Amino acid sequence: MSLDQTPLTGTATDEARRQIEICNACRYCEGFCAVFPAMTRQKAFAAGDLTQLANLCHNCRGCYYACQYTAPHEFALNIPAALAEVRVESWERLARPQAMARMFQTHGVAMAGLLVVVLAWFFWAMSVWRPEGGSGFYAYLAHGTMVAIFTPAFLVPLALIALSLRDYWREVGGGRVRLSHLQSALHSAAKMKNLSGGHGEGCNFEEGDRFSDRRRVFHQVMMYGFLLCFASTASGTIMHYALGWEAPYPLLSPPKLLGLPGGVMMVAGTAGLVWLKLRADRNLGAARVWGGEMAFILLLGGVAVTGLALYAATGSALVGPLLAIHLATVMVLFLLMPFSKMVHGFFRLAALVAEAGMQRPSGKS
Q1: Where does the sequence pass through the membrane (predicted)?
Q2: Other CB atoms closer than 10 Å to residue 347's CB: what's the count?
Q3: 197 & 166 share domain
Q4: Range of the domain at 25
Q5: 198 and 244 within one domain
Q6: How far apart are CA 354 and CA 176, in angstroms?
Q7: Digit-coded pLDDT (tens) for 71-111
Q8: Based on the structure, what is the number of domains in the chain?
């Protein structure tokens, strides 16, 4: 139960509360994802309760196809869509600045595309003044210049996300965090347990009332590919500053051994998620932000594709323009982190940690 007992108001939250209260009376889906056992802890849903349930929801849609009260029944339940609306509203409301979040959610593709074009031109223009020394990428843009540009572009969005998570934790009444809570949350996130629908057969995201594990697989491929790419960058940083080994790095080096498979995995994962999203029923999610969600997936895929293309073009005249496009895509991903669906990973992990702390001693994750 959240600490703040003030009822949430508004069309999305009122509708979600109505539907959740019906679900809480029925409890047919109690064995499904983490949302339903969490829902049974109270009979009335105060401020923060719906926010927590919404961010626990992974939109697997199994509950919709199992429900006997969906339209044309007079209750007209659509829990995946109702919680998706509350979830998106929580990201927008807790983001800083809120206006930027709302703009990206509805105009994400155009916004991301325009920023990539503008920043690509900026980096290309900067490469005209090539440094006297340097090799590889640093022959086009000095290492110190890259660090000066990208460090604040990475840290400032992370600080904004940290503030949003602080407000989220207060809103949902998250208590003291123990190591066991973190372990439980990370275990669920690593396995993407809640994309299995609670029965281990997969979710119903793109196949209607038929189960499929594709969405979980594509999510895992994309997520672990992203983590490999992040580890590649981190290893390059350590090699540069701690070992004095400057780029470019050979194929059999940690940055390449981690980054190349990571990039391929990101391309495969994002391509799969785009395919599934195009097949899925928009009415079972937050339809108004479909474009923003698609922009986020395309942006992740763009980072991986341009990175791989840049490596393939090593030594050719294409390195300059490809470097400008890649740096622009990476920077847009960083700058839009607090406003794009990238933030869902942070919120969902926070929801899993909070849920682990809210469970009764005899409860199971």
Answers
A1: 103-125, 137-163, 221-243, 258-278, 290-312, 318-339
A2: 22
A3: yes
A4: 11-91
A5: yes
A6: 9
A7: 999 999 999 999 999 999 999 899 988 888 888 888 888 88
A8: 2
